[in-house]
Design brief:
Blueprint (H helix, E strand, L loop, with lengths): L2 H5 L2 H4 L5 E2 L4 E2 L12 E3 L14 E3 L8 H5 L1 H8 L4 E3 L11 H20 L4 E2 L22 E5 L7 H15 L3 E5 L10 E4 L10
Parallel strand pairs: 3-4, 4-5, 5-6, 7-8, 8-9
Antiparallel strand pairs: 1-2
């Protein structure tokens, strides 16, 4: 492929969607909450899945299971479009990752959401955070009063740090609904919609 052609490909530039904030992170637009929220893992999706089509798809699994979603988004589009809604991919923001990697993972999360919305799908942004330095960018690309999703798995060992980020998220975004994958802490405020993560594993294949 000619170098000019490669340089201008959208899969290289990723500049086709509206971007916001200091870091020009793609915007996931606010969408209304669907009725009867159920979730299955991205790793349980399949090409023809009439049984689970009334469920949404979450990405609260190891990153390697969904890296291809960003690298080759068109390949999985038809399969994912069967489902009622999608949460954006939960690319990790570990505290020991350099900030540029955390920023990159936030941008990938939002880009996937913008891509799916551009193809007519219902999408809710998954929000995660690292240490306080990540607050500068980790809530970007999400409109105020949006439906958002958070994951609780593994947070109990980092309760204080989690709550700092959670409070920063609710203050910044004022979400209309927070889809909470796992058991919420009692001090979490906001319109929480807890989802039993165990039930999401009971999928008919």
């Amino acid at each position: 492929m000619h170098s000019e052609e490669a340089r201008t490909k959208q899969t290289f530039l990723r500049n086709e969607y509206a971007c916001v904030g200091k870091w020009n992170i793609p915007l996931v637009k606010r969408q209304s909450l669907v009725d009867n929220v159920k979730l299955i893992a991205c790793s349980d999706t399949k090409s023809k899945d009439a049984y689970n089509c009334e469920s949404g798809v979450h990405f609260f699994v190891d990153d390697y299971r969904f890296q291809h979603i960003y690298d080759n988004p068109q390949k999985s589009l038809h399969k994912l479009s069967q489902y009622k809604f999608l949460l954006t991919p939960d690319y990790s923001l570990y505290a020991d990752m350099p900030l540029w990697r955390q920023l990159e993972n936030v941008a990938k999360n939002r880009w996937c959401g913008a891509y799916w919305q551009a193809h007519g799908l219902t999408v809710y942004p998954t929000v995660s955070w690292g240490l306080s330095q990540s607050y500068e960018f980790c809530f970007d690309g999400i409109e105020k009063n949006s439906v958002v999703a958070i994951g609780m798995i593994g947070c109990k060992q980092e309760r204080v740090r989690f709550m700092r980020g959670y409070d920063a998220m609710t203050e910044r975004l004022a979400p209309s609904t927070i889809i909470c994958f796992g058991d919420p802490f009692k001090e979490m405020r906001g319109n929480l919609l807890p989802i039993d993560y165990r039930a999401s594993r009971k999928v008919v294949r």
